[in-house]
Sequence to fold (255 residues):
Amino acid sequence: MTAVAFVRGVSSSFEQCVTARPPDPPLNPELAATQHAQYVAALERGGYQVIAVPVDDDLADSSFIEDTAVVVGTRVLITRPGHPSRRHEVETVAAALTSRFPLHRVRRPAMIDGGDVLKMGSSIFVGRSDRTNEEGILAIAAIAEPLGMSVTSVPVARVLHLKSGVSALDDGTLLWHRDACEREVFDGFEVLEVEGDDPEAANVVRLADGGILVAEHHPETAALVTGKGFTVATTDVSEFARADGGLTCLSIRVR
Ligand code: CIR
Fold:
């Protein structure tokens, strides 16, 4: 099967993104759009067929498409994002996915952001965070467990999403920053600790060709991942980082 990545271009209202702290200087939609195009090119070089979901200029955060849908095996769960301002993002994404996947829906009071969902082979770790609640985690379990996958709820308190500080290099190896969650959650997996003060340094994208895409502003991560024998590509996503997003947030990947 061809590996596919769904992306959504940058809204002209990008400077209104939800952020923990007001960005200074304000977010720059033009710079973000340039970086987004480079990110898409990096996905394509890494073997993904990229499918663009239509841009919506009223939805500031909509380029963080990962939060709107979770792919579990052959099924897709359309989320109910944890931040109310982001709930309208899902319909256009659902319309783009519906011809390819059976879609499942999450009902109130469940909330899920895809940024909280980390897949490692048949193990799925889901952050219980400000954006994802227990009902949301149960909704993922309801579609994953019948497929033979396990779902583990992971308390997340110091970062926005679980994957703000953890991500997979392959099905058995992950990058982890101490602010994301307890390390013991991943007993049985090889855990590479990312040091330093920025948990997002542990957020990387697995490319379809087995390479790893790393944010250009985290050269220490690139060195760590290269040292483990992975081929590393880099791209500049600094403007998205200022909007509290990482590399994974900008696509929904199906490998
Ligand atoms: C938000 O706060 O929802 C956005 N500004 C950032 C979302 C980042 N998404 C992700 O980590 N999956």
